[in-house]
Amino acid sequence: MKKQYLRLLEGWIKSAVSDIYTCPDRPDLMYYGDGTNGWGVQTNQKGLSAFAVLASEPDLDERAVGMWRTQLLKYALGMLRYSLASHKSGDYHTTDADNFKWGHTWISALGVERMMHAVEAIYDKLNGNDLRMLRSMLVSESDWLLDNYPVTAGLIQNNKPESNMWNGSVMLRTAMMYPDIPRANEYVEKAKVFFANAISVPSDEFCEEVVDGKPVKDYFVGANFFESYGCNHHGYMNVGYMVITLSNLAMMHFSCRHFDYTPPKLLYRNFEKLWQLVRACIFDDGRLNRIGGDTRVRYCYCQDYLIPVLMMAADCGLTDAAEIARLEKGWLDIVKTEVAHNGDGTFLSDRCELLREKSPLYFTRLESDRAVSLSYGVYWHRLYGDFTAKADYPYSPDQKCRGMLRQWHDEYHGSCYIRGDKRYASFTWVGAELPTGLCLPPEDSSLAEWKYNMTGEIFGDGFTDSHKLLRHREHMYDGGFATCGAYLSHTDGLIAEQLNEEDTAVCYIAYAALPDDATVVTLQYAVAPKRVHLNKVKSFKLNIPNDIFNGGVRDYVTSDDGRQITVDSRLNIRSIYGGTLKFHKPHFRQIGIKYRCPYPERGMLHCDEICETLQLSPTWYEKGYCIYDFGIAVTCGSETPAENFVRCDCGECLARAAVVKGADGIKYLIAASFADKPCRVEFCGKTVELEACDCVIIKL
To answer: In the predicted model, is pLDDT for residue 122 greater than 90?
Structure first.
């Protein structure tokens, strides 16, 4: 496995050199990226890691890299020395200003932690001044955290699982590397508090279990994860930051192995339980399934830092090494596909061309995320092989947590998933771009995209459009789930004076994953809250990525009646009631960055869209007018006969139902009420009682 990481990293070096600069007044200092504070410093620290790991790699192919090992080391040392010299403990500055230095913030330890494996790799090449400056930087950061930075945590506000993990790690690392420091024991004690409040859940507040000499409750400051291990980071159900938190744990884990150091047991607090959830959110090919969506560039950053997490799971014996190797290989094959497509040695130059032009800092930041993550693969596989045996290490995970969670629900986010052998179905209300649903084969991540997926978009006349969640409710079944909710579609940034924003629609969604390991049914309805002018309406909007990762080729077959579309003979979409299905192929890559990116037609991923309503020209809607009203079934597998889907009639204007014959041969009634109070309705001769805004699944 190491060679696969190595070949990818070797091929990147030539492209990276063009973004390395030498300080004119200090030719011993170099930086990758722009050398500024914050992400600039961290980009440099990640970049140097790739050069350092390659410079120390016995199996390096210098011809593939295009430079000698000594040249790689020169770059690595130059970038490391810039990082150390421009710190508050150093004798230089960042490129922000001649009097500006980095450090002493909640995030300054992050880049340090991400580069320390590389420092270990070339430690014997550091001179006396390098070693003194390294020690000064680590002590300075640890002293600041000890004296000036309180440990905080929170489920919604002050949510800090990842930063508590990396801040605790840098303090523990300093004590581990320099046990002679007078405050070393203080660093360890505060690191314990950071760790106890990293992967922390509400029940930890009352936990009497004694860990590292005290009951867990005595360390508790706040919960960063719900009891379900759902995480509301950046304001939404964020699978990515579950991974980031675990990645920093992995960095500390492998450093402790390197130094033969026994860390506090609190470092691993709740690790296994979070891993169970994260493991379930990984496709069979190693790509993350972000069931709550993403606000950033797809398949970058958090995805990259899954690599150290995978290796830690194997090293700790939580997941079989062979299974981890398959996930690693699957992801590396995806990286290879993109590198080959770019053709210039970079990881992301084609789909991130906007960033390369408009934000070199962001572009090099993402490039270095991928480079440093690959360097973990090279270095740790070099030291520990393929993790075929459990580490001889004083940490023993709970073996009950070895398997992935097949079914899961988080009440706060209204997030559910069910993962079977043939279908991965999920729905999340409090998502990055709420709400979002998925139904696809678990082995084909190329079909996954979360942006308002299976929930549609209504565009007003403002500069931006968003959704305001009103309510949601979920029911879990053995092998399935049902959820129902409502939201306001909202537009902001209107041109007219005195009117800057307005609500454009009231939208209702019922979404049911049947217990047949194949089918999802959604019933949706939207109404105009007043007379509104809508720029575009795309109801349902199933995103089908059609870009470099699938070779830009999809096979669509539409039935004669226009009510069924089959995608690649793997996914079938059937209109149960409402209009026919419409196929839309935007002329630009529409999946981009949610915030701070006023270039909507220069995204980073292209999707085809399958819609029920497809209104692309501005239209007036009167108050109370039905914007759309439909039911659709999505099935994983071969073509499904149309007679398997039947609409149920009901006199209640806000009740909807359908009968669907599942892949298991069982008929299911999916009944929903969009009313704001409980109701009793008759469907198919059955009396169904529904709560306000509710959806249920009933076997017939």
So the answer is: yes
How many whole angstroms separate alpha carbon 462 and alpha carbon 465? 7
| Residue type present at position 609 | E
pLDDT above 80: residue 485: yes
pLDDT tens string 309-366: 999 999 998 999 999 999 999 999 999 999 999 999 999 999 999 999 999 999 999 9
**Residue 296, CA distances (Å) to 210, 548, 593 in order:** 40, 18, 5
Q: Considering only CA atoms, which of 402, 400, 405, 404 is closest in space to residue 416?
A: 405
Q: What are phi and psi of 678, to 5 degrees?
A: -60, 155
Per cent of the chain over pLDDT 70 is 99
pLDDT, mean over the chain: 96
Burial state string for 656-692 with b = 16 or more CB within 10 A and e = fewer than 16: bbbbbbbbeeeebbbbbbbbeeebebbbbeeebebee
Contact 370, 13 (CB under 8 A): no
The answer to whether the beta carbons of residues 550 and 607 sit under 8 Å apart is no
Lowest mean pLDDT among 437-446, 613-622, 643-652: 643-652
Distance CA 242, CA 159 (A): 12
Q: Residue 620: is it exposed, middle or buried by C-beta count within 10 angstroms (0-12/13-18/19+)? A: exposed
Tell me the pLDDT band of 456, cut-offs 50, 70 and 90.
very high
139: pLDDT strictly greater than 90: yes
Rounded distance between C-alpha atoms, residue 51 and residue 74, angstroms:
9
Give the Cβ contact number of residue 151 at 10 Å: 20
Cβ atoms of residues 45 and 99 within 8 Å: no
Q: Which three-class secondary structure state does DSSP give residue 360?
A: helix
**Number of residues assigned to the chain:** 700
C-alpha to C-alpha distance for 403 and 406, rounded to whole angstroms = 9
